[in-house]
Specification:
A two-stranded parallel sheet has the order 1-2. It is extended and about 65 Å long. Helix 3 crosses helix 4 and helix 4 packs antiparallel against helix 5. With about 160 residues, it is mainly alpha-helical. Helices cover about 60% and strands about 5% of the residues.
Length: about 160
C-alpha cells in the first residue's frame, strides 16, 4: 500500500518485497539483510551468536547499547534493557543483528537518494506506475480463484 502512494520500499528480500522488486526493478527498491540461503547457512553453522556481531561492529554496539543507556526513556532507567538483552541472546530467532549493518547501509543509500529530490521523485513515480499488480481487486480475485476456489456471482445468479 505504501508503494501505491509513492513510497520507496526498504526491506528484506522476503514476502511481498520479492514481488515488489520484480515489478519495480532492483534500482527502485532498497533491499537489505541476509538471503534465505545465507540464513540457512547461518543456522547450519551452529548457534547464532549475535554478541559476536555486537563486539565486532562499533555501529551495532552503539545502537544496542543505547537501549541500556536510558536514551529513550531517561526518567525510567532500565526500562529498555530487556530489548538489549533479547537482541544479544544466543539463538535470538529473528537474527536482528545479523541484518543490522546491511540495514544501516541501505538506509544511508535511501537517505542520500532522498536528498536528490528529482531522483527520489522519479523513482517514486516509477514505483507508483509499476505497482498496480498489488491492487486489492487483483489480490481478492486471485484469492477467490486460487485459494478459496470460488467464482464471482453474476447479476443473474444473485437473484433467487
Amino acid at each position: 500500500k505504501f508503494a501505491m502512494n509513492g513510497a520507496i520500499t526498504i526491506g528484506t528480500l522476503d514476502g511481498a518485497n520479492i514481488e515488489i522488486r520484480e515489478e519495480v526493478g532492483d534500482e527502485n527498491i532498497f533491499i537489505f539483510g541476509l538471503t534465505v540461503e545465507q540464513v540457512r547457512q547461518l543456522h547450519a553453522s551452529g548457534p547464532y551468536r549475535p554478541r559476536e556481531i555486537y563486539l565486532r561492529s562499533p555501529a551495532v554496539k552503539r545502537i544496542v547499547d543505547a537501549f541500556a543507556e536510558n536514551l529513550f526513556c531517561p526518567n525510567a532507567p532500565g526500562q529498555h534493557q530487556w530489548v538489549r538483552d533479547k537482541l544479544l541472546a544466543e539463538n535470538e530467532p529473528y537474527l536482528h543483528l545479523a541484518d543490522l549493518e546491511s540495514y544501516l547501509t541501505a538506509q544511508s543509500a535511501a537517505s542520500a537518494l532522498y536528498h536528490d529530490q528529482a531522483a527520489w521523485a522519479a523513482k517514486a513515480v516509477h514505483n507508483v506506475a509499476r505497482i498496480g499488480k498489488f491492487s486489492s481487486d487483483r489480490a481478492i480475485r486471485e484469492y477467490a480463484e486460487q485459494i478459496w476456489k470460488i467464482r464471482p456471482i453474476t447479476d443473474g445468479a444473485a437473484k433467487s
